[in-house]
Amino acid sequence: MLDVHMGMPKTGTSILQRCLSLKADQLGILYPEAFIERGFGQHLIATTLKDAGINSPVLSNFFEYLHANKTKRVIVSSESFSTQIGPNRIAGLIRFWKHCAVILPSRLIIVVRRMDRFVESMYLQQIRFGKYSGSIKEYIPMQEKWMKGFFQGLGILKRECGESLLIIPFIEDFDVLACFENLLTLRSGDLTSERSRLPSTAKYSAKAQSLLLSIREVGSEISISIDRRSLIRGLAKGKIRFSNDVVQYTIMGSSDSKRIQAKAVDAANNAGVTEYTDSFSEIEEMENFQITLCRSLLSEDDIKTVRDFCLTQKQNSMG
């Protein structure tokens, strides 16, 4: 049996990948290291499929791997598979699944999050890594266009794959490790017992996100070129702490949230993706405190904390 976990991003994918890389061998599951790229997922398979198709050398090697292990349990995981779920790219993913299914029974698995919360999480991630610097208001229309195509592609995939496609809603208190213990017919605790060893993937605080959004402005203020990677590591490890910070918050207004969710439900309904509409049809408001990410959230003491961290990092790098 082959399980292809396709994400989506922001649904516990990284936690699952890290856990499988630690535990798969002990559990008698094959989690092929040869195709792992950038972290702990088999992104090499997904990106090669997207860029070169199933006739590429990388995928030929993967299919040979499946032939050699067709009596075993194999799982691969990459959120990059989900980027191919759209009307213009879905045919390649379907060909990939069909090719795998000829070799051994194969399932596609995707965890789907409520779209307003997904859009907000992706925006925060783009800000964090410096891939986007605009406002959430500017970001939303691009994602609404993507969202319509995503559900169209998912509907096509559902019709082609039937019961070989599992669409799992990311509902409140969803536990990706417990979910995959069940999907892989493992014992309770086989994956969840590793939770304490895994790094946190919790949302960054409001001040941390504001700092990452205004990193150039802050760097100019303190006359230091701030290294984003070092800053992210410092924030993740708790080396940078801000006073009077907010952890439970939203940056999306109620009207935007409701509009995104209404469009998502409509798109999913039109595409026949009942797994989404059954779980998320009720349009709920964001419950957290709404804020606007900006430089002004950071106090003088916060800026001094950032400056001290940067100077310490510089001194350490100089030995």
Which labels suit this protein?
single chain; 319 residues; alpha/beta; Rossmann fold; 2 domains; 5-stranded parallel sheet; two-stranded parallel ribbon; 13 helices; 51% helix
What does this structure look like?
This protein is an alpha/beta fold. Helices cover 51% and strands 9% of the residues. The protein has 2 domains: 2-115 and 152-197, Rossmann fold, CATH 3.40.50; 206-250 and 291-317. The chain has helices at 13-23, 43-52, 57-68, 90-103, 115-128, 136-161, 176-183, 206-213, 215-222, 228-236, 254-271, 274-280, 300-317, and strands spanning 2-5, 29-30, 73-77, 106-113, 165-170, 249-250, 289-290. The protein starts with a strand and ends with a helix. The model has no long low-confidence stretch (mean pLDDT 94).
What's a concise summary of this model?
This protein has 319 residues and is of the alpha/beta class. It is built from 13 helices and seven strands.
Assign the CATH architecture of the largest domain.
Answer: 3-Layer(aba) Sandwich
Spell out the helices and strands N to C: EHEHHEHEHHEHHHHEHHEH
Strand content: 5-15%
Structural class: alpha/beta
Terminal Cα separation, in Å?
52 Å
List the helices and strands and how they pair.
Elements: E1 2-5, H1 13-23, E2 29-30, H2 43-52, H3 57-68, E3 73-77, H4 90-103, E4 106-113, H5 115-128, H6 136-161, E5 165-170, H7 176-183, H8 206-213, H9 215-222, H10 228-236, E6 249-250, H11 254-271, H12 274-280, E7 289-290, H13 300-317
Parallel strand pairs: 1-3, 1-4, 2-3, 4-5, 6-7
